[in-house]
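Usage example:
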Amino acid sequence: MTQLTNMTSPSRRGVLKGATAIGAAALVTPWGTPLRAQPVSGGTLRVGMAHGSTTDALDPGSWEADFMIFQAHTRNNYLTEIAADGSLVPELAESWEASADAATWTFTLRSGVEFHSGHILTADDVIASINHHRGEDSTSAAAPIVADITDMTADGMNVVFTLSAGNADFPFVLSDYHLPILPAQADGTIDPNTQDGCGPFRIAEIEFGVGARYERHEGYWKEGLPYFDAIEQVVIFDDAARQNALISGDVDYIDTADLNTVHLLERAPGIEILSVTGTQHYGLPMDTRAAPFDDVNVRMALKFGINRQQLVDTILNGYGSLGNDHPIGPGQRYFNTELEQREYDPDRVQFHLREAGMESLDVDIHLADAAFAGALDAGVLFAESASAGGINLNVVREPNDGYWSNVWMQKPFAGTYWGGRPTEDWMFATAYAEGVPWNETYWSNDRFNELLVSARAELDEDLRREQYFEMQQIVSDEGGIIIPMFAAYVGAYSDRLAHPEQIASNWRNDGHRIGERWWFAS
Amino acid sequence: MSHILTMIAQRLALGLVTLFVVSLIIFLGTELLPGDFAQEILGQSATPETVAALREQLGLNDPMHIRYLGWLTDIVQGDFGESLANGQSVAGLIGGRLVRTLQLASYAAAIAVPLSLVLGILAALFRNSFFDRFANASALSSISFPEFFVAYILIFLLAGANGAFPSTAINISRGDPNFTEYLHVAFLPALTLTLVVTAHMMRMTRAAIINLLSSPYIEMARLKGMSPMRIIVKHALPNALAPIINVVALNLAYLITGVVVVEVVFVYPGLGQLMVDSVAARDMPVVQGVALIFAGAYVLLNLTADVLATLSNPRLVHRR
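Running the assembly step on the lines above writes:
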């Protein structure tokens, strides 16, 4: 069986030219990575999920929480797929090619892909599906990520994307969960409320905020997949109820285990814990325009005043890793391995406060658990550790309700979380580039912005790495956000389930694709 | 009897006015909450452009009174409108959940009402005895604990790997169980609710009866040589019915409207979670729809209580 391990760090050229090679490799391996045992078909996978709201909707532009993202990957396929090892592999697009400036991309679609309705995939479906998120009156959460597309044309089974500027990572963008390929209607648009799709399972029943039931799509194009006959997805908000459901066998898999009690769950017979650290990180952004955070020394003092190890040990119960005040995770291609890990150091806090011309510092931090699980506790621990360096941090408790519209990016010092993005460029361009809507620290650094543009179009692998290393250094030393920890995705499952050796780290639930990657062992 | 019918008609008309006022208050209250639907539903991923486009599409830019009047016009014609979030009809969203909420409320009521009446009567009969104190103390403790704590204790005692009952009601959302299956699956949520509402009804029954026991006519009955049980059931209880009925009605309304915590702990798909999600997203048509159902439940149950209380009082039935 061919392994895809050499694909862990797809080079820019790999992405540009190697798509066909990856495609060929993929044809001779079952989807996914090396298997521990021969997968067996059959059975109904019952999944308990911690999120899901009665206000969820079928419109892909509205997908935000795990219930719908899981649904998205269970029902749909995408042009490209992020494999379990983090590399980009073809899905509905068989191969792709870029122009020399990486501003024009030609994707060749797989032929004969059948939707649940029997419709066969065409280039028009792709254009209609992407167009749903574009345009002036787009209400899609994905509008910013497709904003660079200026034109799309169909040519047989080819789709040509024209971008406003070169972007070597563009194929990664098309794997975004908001961009499933749905069937085009006669007028060249998609019906956003359709239940059709060309993924491994068809929707049999869906009740938002309660649950959904899926049945295997017999005409699925991936040979031999999926293994399960059906999937049942149930929303179980309450941590204790979710764990009870798993222990008592009402569900086979839960997507989120409560970190406070996960050590008890570990001891339960027949239960396995699934912990994956990827790009998800928790942060404390400061408004770099507002005093006192406009002084880089104040920001540094705060960065040295937080005890990262203590936060990972207590807030995450050990399920995570230390953050270094930049958003790139240790598993990513251009993670800066040379950057020294920032430690808790009250002397450095005092040093930076003196540099800023202060004896002590009084600041408010506005937090709610909506920002991330345990944010308020983290704030209290932060206040405690920072006080040793002369910082009086006052934790202001904000309501969870309306947190993202009234506190985040409104108050000068608050909390945030990011699921992370598969590429460095995507993450930096989303929240660190000057003037972008989610630049939560209102930060602007000329050198950083310059590097962002040049790295995006850089062909030389080593130069590109150097530039991303420098950008991580700049964000860490001068940026406005404290990123103390990368949080693992922690779930749990019954040992009746089996999975490939490598689990994807880009999202929960094996990249939300456990529906087609996992199987019942017996 | 005719004046009772008149009273029912009057009360129903007043009920409509109440519903109107409630809808106005709910609307204004939700307007006062910071953020609107477009911001809340896009959450962290909102950009100014998408928020503006969403507001435009859903007509959220119209002034408040225009939106309220539009909703009111539809509702008068029996159209509950559609959810802003996913375009599903509010009537459809509420329908299935209302049935399940009513099922659970009836299940709990079927246990709680007889239980609390019997306990209340027995407590009045053996007042100040060990039994009375024990019943009071345990009912008060169960009402004093938060509902989720009561629920966890019951799960710990009665569910789990060796327990007789399932710890969650997931199977209810998986398909329509038959009647006996339902009684089995929904037993723990119903028992939790029973423990929460019993104390109130039981203590009112006890207090209302004891209140009457010092009356001259009870003393007369006792002098006749009637047994204490007979005195209470035949002579005291009929006169104590009015306050008991009122408390029962209030608790039944609570069973319909106040069970969101129990729904969450037992994964029971009822109306409470729908209300919470919709308020969080400022999904006005759904919030209004559910609020009307809740208000309607209070109006109807209070009306029933008043009618029954009137019927239980011969002086009011046979007015001269």
